[in-house]
Amino acid sequence: MPRPSTGTPNVDWTDPDCPVARTLDLVGDRWSLLVVRDAMDGARSFTEFQRRTGIARNILSDRLRKLSAHGLLAQQTAPTGRRLEYVLTDRGRDLFPVLLTLRQWGERHAFDPGEPHSVLVDERGVRVPDLTPTGAHGAPLAADSTHVRKTGASR
After folding, report:
1. Which residues, in sequence order, are CB contacts of 27 under 8 Å at separation 6+?
2. Residue 6 domain-assigned (yes or no)
3. Domain range for residue 128?
4. Same domain, yes or no, for 102 and 80?
5. pLDDT 10s digits, 74-111
6. How much is the pTM?
7. Number of domains in the chain
8. Domain shared by 19 and 46, yes or no
9. Rounded to an integer, what distance in angstroms lies between the CA atom of residue 101 and that of residue 23?
10. What pLDDT score was predicted for residue 153?
């Protein structure tokens, strides 16, 4: 039976049945997620992305093209009408919980105790609380309380 289209052009999936592998095939390199991060933080132009990330022009061009081709970014005319800018699509904004989880993991494990780092705050300036996945009944989920049901596996 043919697989439904994901809206992503010409991707050779590393592991076609695994959502984690497919996601990594689309955005699993360092630069793609940093571009999405900066788009969430208001970057719109090629120059802004380059300044914020320090990424080489050729790599940035490639990532912007890839993220646009896969529907995470869209190009629109800037308010000045003189150039194009990049904006997140709904698909791109849906990566917010992923980036939030990576950020919170980094806050816990990528800094020495007391080492300064940026902090994500809400619209009132209050630190965003830690994200904790919960099951259907509200209980916290963890790696040892979940498992993957493989494609075609019986229920």
Report:
1. 33, 36, 67, 72, 95
2. no
3. 95-134
4. no
5. 999 988 888 999 999 999 999 999 999 999 999 999 99
6. 0.84
7. 2
8. yes
9. 15
10. 55
Residue 147 lies inside a defined structural domain of this protein: no
Structure tokens at 49: 């992305």
Q: Are 57 and 50 in contact (CB under 8 A)?
A: yes
Which residues contact residue 53 at a Cβ distance below 8 angstroms, ignoring those fewer than 6 apart? Answer: 31, 34, 35, 38, 60
DSSP per residue over the chain, as a string? -PPPP-S--S---SSTT-HHHHHHHHH-SHHHHHHHHHHHTT--SHHHHHHHH---HHHHHHHHHHHHHTTSEEEEE-TTSSSEEEEE-HHHHTTHHHHHHHHHHHHHHSS-TT------B-TTSPBPPPP--B-TTS-B--GGG-----TT---
pLDDT band at 148 (very low <50, low <70, confident <90, very high): very high
Specify if 144 maps to a domain: no
Q: Are 8 and 57 in contact (CB under 8 A)?
A: no
CA distance 27 to 35: 10
C-alpha 126/C-alpha 58 separation (Å) is 38
The pair of three-digit structure tokens given for residue 1, joined into one six-digit string? 């039976």
Mean pLDDT, the chain, integer: 90
| Claim to verify: residue 30 and residue 73 sit in the same structural domain | yes
pLDDT at residue 40 above 50? Answer: yes
